[in-house]
Structures are given as C-alpha cells and as structure tokens.
Write a structure and sequence with these properties.
It is a single chain. The protein has about 250 residues and is of the alpha/beta class. Helices cover about 40% and strands about 15% of the residues. The chain contains 9 helices and 8 strands. The chain has helices at about 15-30, 75-80, 90-95, 100-110, 130-140, 175-190, 195-200, 215-220, 235-245; strands at about 5-10, 35-40, 55, 85, 115-120, 155-160, 200-205, 225. Strands 2-1-8-7-6-5-4-3 form an 8-stranded parallel sheet. The longest helix has 19 residues, at about 175-190. The N and C termini lie close together (about 10 Å). Bound molecules: 1,3-dihydroxyacetonephosphate. 1,3-dihydroxyacetonephosphate binds next to strand 8.
C-alpha cells in the first residue's frame, strides 16, 4: 500500500528558529516509527535549511533567477533538498496569485523535479454544484501545457476555503470529501487519462484535527492530509499522523 502523506503547512509560524527546530524534531522523531505515513513539514522559507526531515516549501517564484527582490526560485529550494512545494494555496491566491501564475509556478516545480502540491477549492458552496465547476476550472488552468506524462507527479490538495482556519464555517463531511476526491480524479482522467487519474494523490486540507483525520482518509479515501494550525503542535500533529496510520 502506498504511504499516506501528512503535510504540515506552518504558514507564517512559529516566531523563532529555535521553536521551528524544537517542533520539527518532535514531529519527525514521533513520525519515524510509523510505517504507512510520510510526514512532511512546510516551514516558512527562512527555517527550511535548519530543519532535518522531509521538507516542503509553502510557495515559489516562477522565474529562474535575476532582479526579483524577495523571490525564491525552484532551484534554490531544490538545493536545500526540498521535495514538495505548495502552489496555489488559497492564502497566496488571495494575495494575488491568479490561475495563470499558479500554472507557471507548477511548471517550475515540476522542471526542478520536485512534487507540486496543487491546492484547489471553492470559496463557498452552492446548491447547484457550481463549486465543482470552479474546482475543475482551477485544475484545468493550473495544468495548462503540462505534459500528460508528468501529471502523475502532481499532488492535488482539496482545500475548501470555507473550511480553512479558525474562522471556518464548518467541517467537510466524509462523504463529501469522497465526492470531491472522485470528481478531481475524473477531471485528471479527462486531462491525462485514467491511469494517471488512478495514480495521482489527492489530499484533504481544512481544519484537520486528531478527531476528524481518520474520516477523511477512510470515508473520503484521501491519500493524505494538508494540516494548518494543528501541525504546529507536535502532540496534536502526531496524533493526526497516528490516526491516519491506523486506517
Ligand atoms: P487549517 O488546518 O488551520 O484550517 O489550515 C488548513 C490549510 O490551509 C493548510 O494548508
């Protein structure tokens, strides 16, 4: 059985390098013992080179090099042994990342031989299922001109905006996670074929905690989780990992 990927997206936390070290050490020490899980931490960029473990980045800039103050290239991340890069997170999208920018970022990550974690998800739900169209459009645009034979390297993360963060409006029911999982694979099948659609990993993110983690993996048939707040608390994050391992 393929390992489940449990990704901690630390966002703009914690406050210091020392805390980042401390939290990550506890997490990786605890996660090492579990056979069915691959734990990944996406720390803020300044902490990446300090952390020993499987690393992801929270964002990337799409140019190769040059006069782009503040920019971080895919090659730079690769040189720090980063394996995963989140692209299209809703918090980056609301800071200005359009579908076109997400597409460019996705391509530089693939070119640098890292795995993009492509975040998609609707802002709100409606009764007519328009949100499915919205998600399909996000995926199609992000994958524009990506060669079909490398689409399987992309990890999809379904993160409905209304379910993210401490002001979340609700928690996604397990069967709805399954519906979206199936739908995402159908969209991928249309783009890159049925074999890729079967192979691709789909994660769920949005208010994941130790209590609901199992539901997304078992009822939602997710290949892993993208965890925000709870990934900063080693005890809680390890509990999520253990619960996912036990499914
Ligand atoms: P929370 O788990 O804090 O809701 O954040 C989810 C998220 O945005 C992960 O990328």
């Amino acid at each position: 059985m393929a390992k489940k990927i449990i990704v901690g997206n630390w966002k703009m936390n914690p406050k210091s390098a020392r805390e980042a070290n401390d939290i990550s050490e506890k997490i990786f020490r605890g996660a090492r013992k579990l056979k069915n899980i691959s734990a990944v931490i996406c720390p803020p960029a300044p902490f990446i080179s300090l952390i020993k473990g499987v690393l992801g980045a929270q964002d990337v800039f799409y140019e190769k090099d040059g006069a782009y103050t503040g920019g971080i290239s895919a090659e730079m991340l690769k040189s720090l042994s980063v394996r995963y890069v989140i692209v299209g997170h809703s918090e980056r999208r609301s800071a200005g990342d359009t579908n076109d920018i997400v597409n460019k970022k996705l391509k530089v990550v693939l070119n640098a031989k890292m795995a993009p974690i492509l975040c998609v998800g609707e802002l709100t739900r409606d009764h007519h299922g328009q949100y499915f169209h919205f998600v399909r459009d996000q995926i199609r645009q992000a994958l524009k001109n990506v060669s079909k034979n490398i689409v399987h390297k992309i990890i999809l993360a379904y993160e409905p905006l209304w379910a993210i963060g401490k002001n979340a409006k609700g928690v996604l029911p397990g069967e709805e996670a399954l519906h979206m999982n199936i739908f995402i694979r159908k969209v991928i099948a249309d783009i890159a074929g049925a074999t890729t659609a079967k192979k691709i990993k789909v994660l769920y993110g949005g208010s994941v905690d130790a209590k609901n983690a199992k539901k997304f993996i078992s009822a939602g048939k997710m290949d892993g989780l993208l965890v925000g707040r709870e990934s900063l608390n080693p005890k809680n994050f390890l509990e999520i990992i253990k619960n996912a391992d036990a499914v």
